[in-house]
Write a structure and sequence with these properties.
514 residues, alpha+beta, 9-stranded mixed β-sheet, 8-stranded mixed β-sheet, 10 helices, 26% helix, 30% strand
Length: 514
């Protein structure tokens, strides 16, 4: 369909997740005084809440600390596919980890999905759970061999899979692999149940409580921002997406990527299934019911955080793709998410370092947090309660595979160094007076680099662009109206407040010059 046949309908002016827009959660207090627990969990996303739920079922005293609001991070901005098919990955994992460990990767995720399905069924959770086949596909002939090798890996690992050509849906594609019996759901309706159940079992939740450190003696002491109150616990789980407590230097072993989604009311019917491309441009499709209408969630447009060019353009390209494939009646929502990718694309789940065996981490879910976050909850709950889990080894954070680990370690940290240096030496010519309303940019202010944003009424907000994590220079994200760090993925709103770690301190606010 040409551009003339189907002009764009128009994107919403403000990004908002469909899930966050359609769910309200209780507000939880800020931690105001020292307290104790068996387990302190940092982060209230799917990994933290699942861990809290499972531990509360075993009678442990659990405290959850969240820097913002519960489920307002990546979990609240997912495309919510419950699948053990994580792109074209199984041949790669088998080559790097071996047959047995690759099989454990599949089984761990498949069993997490099965546990979720049974929980939904047994408790009658109203979360739009729908079993669907998942498809990974390629769009160009030159990538066909890669897909053929992946299907061979499915056979070696005894993973159910089927070659499909053509796909059931009408999108540009060459061929795909179907993994039957996966699922999609409303993640916040599902997690609402887990959260309420955990609270009924005695789990205490504290919002707007930023953790800055974990100190260890006979016990563990979780310290909060500004010499605030602390939590003393026997075990600590760091499930804050990017580890806010980082004795293992995870910032050298992870990189942050942003991806985008638009919820579209289509003109044409959708044949069902969940789809993701493995080549560029990245594309993801699934359906969801909203106000009695079937919407298609179009996702993709991945790039490293702070390194996208004209971030609003990513939404526009998804809009055009939706128009060209299914037509657009309406676009009620658009949003983006941030995900962390490990050196070998397998999450880090387990002791945060060999010297901190009672502090655990769950991170690097690589855009597949619905199953990997659930699996992390089981792995960590088992470890804390002394239960052996057969899937633990492949996810252990202490692993290091020379291929691809060493190469990717060098590549990622060279990239960080490049961004650090370029941000410091780049010449800035733009002046605050050149900004229009609802426009942000790096500007020259008082002879130095600064970040400026004028809101819709013309009010000016000025911040120091030096990230408070490790000193890289943040860049303006037009699509989200935020300042994003290209080195380790910290994000700040236009007033300078932290909205995504690893940074815990706000950007310095600058005064406007007359």
């Amino acid at each position: 369909m040409s551009d003339q046949q189907q002009p764009p309908v128009g994107l919403p002016p403000i990004p908002e997740s469909l899930w966050r827009a359609t769910h309200a959660f209780d507000s939880y207090p800020k931690l105001e005084e020292d307290t104790t627990a068996d387990v302190a969990i940092i982060g209230a996303g799917i990994a933290g809440i699942t861990t809290a739920y499972l531990l509360s079922q075993k009678g442990l005293r659990v405290v959850v600390l969240e820097a913002g609001k519960v489920l307002d991070g990546t979990t609240g901005h997912t495309t919510a596919k419950v699948s053990a098919q994580h792109g074209v990955i199984f041949n790669e994992i088998m080559q790097h980890f071996g047959h047995e460990q690759a099989r454990m990767y599949y089984e761990g995720n498949a069993e997490a999905a099965s546990w979720m399905r049974e929980l939904v069924k047994s408790h009658k959770i109203d979360c739009q759970w729908a079993d669907e086949d998942a498809y990974v596909y390629i769009q160009s002939e030159e990538n066909l061999k890669k897909l053929e090798i992946e299907l061979t890996a499915y056979g070696k690992l005894d993973i159910p899979g089927q070659w499909v050509d053509p796909l059931p849906i009408d999108v540009p594609s060459r061929a795909g692999i179907k993994m039957p019996g996966q699922a999609r759901f409303d993640p916040l309706a599902y997690l609402h149940f887990l959260l309420d159940s955990a609270v009924k079992n005695g789990v205490r939740i504290f919002e707007h409580t930023t953790v800055t450190d974990v100190e260890e003696d006979a016990n563990l002491h979780v310290r909060t921002y500004g010499n605030g109150p602390s939590v003393t616990a026997e075990h600590v789980v760091v499930a804050s997406h990017f580890p806010v407590y980082d004795p293992g230097f995870y910032f050298t072993r992870l990189h942050a990527e942003r991806s985008y989604a638009v919820a579209v009311e289509p003109q044409k019917p959708f044949a069902g299934g969940m789809y993701i491309s493995d080549d560029e441009p990245s594309r993801s499709l699934r359906t969801v019911l909203h106000e009695g209408k079937e919407l298609i969630l179009f996702g993709g447009e991945n790039h490293k955080t702070g390194q996208g060019i004209c971030t609003f353009g990513h939404y526009e390209r998804l809009e055009r793709y939706a128009a060209d494939t299914y037509g657009i009646r309406n676009i009620p929502f658009r949003w983006s998410a941030q995900d962390l990718i490990s050196l070998d694309k397998v999450p880090y789940i387990g002791p945060i370092t060999g010297r901190h065996e009672r502090v655990y981490v769950a991170t690097g879910f690589a855009k597949w947090g619905m199953t990997t976050g659930t699996m992390a909850g089981h792995l960590l709950a088992d470890r804390i309660t002394g239960v052996e889990n057969p899937h633990a080894e492949i996810f252990h954070p202490a692993r290091f595979k020379s291929d691809p680990g060493f190469k990717n370690f060098i590549v990622e940290n060279v990239n960080v160094a490049k961004e650090l240096i370029s941000g410091k030496v780049g010449i800035v010519h733009k002046h605050v007076n050149e900004l229009g309303n609802d426009e942000g940019s790096v500007v020259r202010h008082d002879g130095k680099r600064a970040g400026a944003y004028k809101d819709a009424s013309g009010k000016l907000f000025l911040v120091d662009t030096t990230c408070t994590h490790l000193g890289c220079e943040v860049e303006w994200n037009e699509g989200e109206r935020s300042w994003d760090c290209p080195c380790h993925g910290s994000r700040f709103n236009y007033t300078g407040e932290v909205i995504e770690g690893p940074a815990v301190k706000d950007l310095k606010v600058l005064e406007a010059m007359e």
